[in-house]
Amino acid sequence: MASRTLTVIPIQAPVQTGKFNLLQTLTTSLLAAGEHLLDGDVLAVSSKYTAISEGRIITLSEVEVSEQASMLAARYQMNPTMAELVVKEADYIFGGIPGFLLTHKDGIISPNAGIDRSNIPSGFAVLFPDDPYASARAIRSAIREVLGVDVGVILTDSWLMPGRIGTTGVALATAGFAPVQDERGKTDLFGNPMQVTRRGIADQLCVCAQMVMGERDEAVPFAIVRGSGVELSDTVITAADVSIDWKECIYVQSLTEGLLRS
Questions:
Q1: Mean pLDDT of 146-173
Q2: Do residues 120 and 191 share a domain?
Q3: Does the structure show a pLDDT above 60 at 258?
């Protein structure tokens, strides 16, 4: 296969603290940056920026703490209000360490169900988009309708890899292209058939985008990934297309039912 040049273009946008029109902001930001989307591009969009645009902001002082959350907060030395939000948002809670609960949410294993208190005024928290895959599809559809271009869309987030220091990018949701490329049955450099390899294309592109989007005060909620070579499609993508059941996850199962005990 011929080599490709991958280009990642950061797009700055205004800081937002309340519900707003995401497409209008994207359009204005592209114009201000002197950039435009092309057919075949993949647009990476901050999942937090998307969530804020949808009004997924919680006033912490208004959260009522349940008995379950109080018990979790005491056990894991965390803010009871945050514990309550995790209880409400998480699909499953595995356990935790001081200050954090390890959860399964929208197909991703992450701390505190993805609830974030950074880059938002004090006293507030931002949840994941209500339906990340629906949000990604809606953004793609709006871009096609208003801007007249066919692109893929990734909602980006950051997570901690097991056993490693530092966050890296992960695709919370994808629209417009297959997030996983199946290599099983194909051959390697020596003609050996691949047995289990499936490439996380959406996650890999998300990592590229996160390099220019940053984590702090960069104010870059959009990035254009150009030259990826992904094949665009209108097939509806869901979490089931990229996630395995956590009971089949080598990390989770090896540290629970498969734990080697001395």
A1: 91
A2: no
A3: yes
Structure tokens given for 250? 């080598």
Tell me which of 127, 151, 185 is where a domain ends.
127
Query: CB-hemisphere CA count at 13 Å for 167?
Result: 16
Range of the domain at 71: 57-127
254 in the same domain as 139 = yes
CATH number at residue 89: 3.90.1660.10
Residue 30 tokens read as 């592209």
Q: Are 180 and 198 in contact (CB under 8 A)?
A: yes
Residues 181-211 have pLDDT tens digits of: 765 556 666 566 655 556 789 999 999 999 9
**222-226 vs 42-46, strand pairing mode:** antiparallel
State mean pLDDT over 59-83: 95
- Residue finishing a domain among 111, 127, 143: 127
CA–CA distance from 136 to each of 132, 153, 245 (Å)?
A: 6, 6, 22
